[in-house]
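Hi R.,

Here's the chain you asked about this morning:
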Amino acid sequence: MSVFRPGDLYTHEEIYRALSVGNAGGIRVKVNADGTVRRAVLLTSDPTARIAAENPYHDRVEGDVLVYTGAGQEGDQALGGRNGRLLDQPQEGFPIYAFRLIESRRSKRHGPRRWRFLGLLTFMRHYNERQMDVRGGLRAVWVFEFRVHSGFDAVAPDYDGKLMADLVAEQQTMDPVEEDDAVVAPDSSDPESAEAPADPEEMEGLRRKMLVLPPDRFEHLVRSVLIWSGFREVQVTKYSQDGGIDVTALAGERMWPLRDLLLQVQAKRWLHTVGRKEVAELRGSLQPYACGAVVTTSHFSNAALREATEGGKKPIVLVNGFEFSRLVLTSGAWPL
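And the predicted structure, written out as tokens:
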């Protein structure tokens, strides 16, 4: 009996034969006799440097979250077909296997075993947002976010349903995703958006460029916008990946009622949603009399928005990618 171990490499044939799915497409499903899904397989690939630069929206793993953009590089995307099947996982509980292609078939380094098993996925949320297509125009796309589970030794297809149920139960205990936490991402073309720029394509074009910045350069961009906004003694902290404070600043003379107030900022150059957990963790990291802000290239979940303004807690300012793009354009901080 075949088993799949997180981190190990497999051939394309081993995947579709052992899991009884088709041999084509990025999303493949095995359907039960009653029409429900028995299991699904999601295939993605490591982007080359060129692909990553040309398409910042490429599928990516950020921490333990896989961000998967629906199929199609041009025109508006529809939510249906196999993409729509993924939405049934929370109710039906079927396992989703994730594999990533690590090199092209022309490479001989790993032979035919070129697909790395990332682990099993649990659906977190999906949302519609506007992105730049291959022709440089705005279009509507569907984005899916999954939690990647890889903390097990191996999974056997005959018993994957039981393992999936255990992983879902563990996630709900450790870091539950609220039922109403699906996100409708802010739309840069919405005329009711505060101070929306005249050219929404320019706004999204800048967000697209920020998505490919190294995290430390994004932090320096945040610093530049804070200086333009009137803050002083703006410092980027020593770069780390521990989720701590990234930029600190003091309110300047123009902010006279708040003069010398300490601001501590967490900068997240993310494609996936910033959730409640990140907002709460920032609040716990703040110095006693500091105020906090999260600046991201993505957006916030409904739970994060509620956490930021919950009564009895220190409020946290949240700036999403579209808002920050507007600030960068207004400040002239780009190009770096």
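The mean pLDDT is 86.

Let me know if you need anything else.
M.
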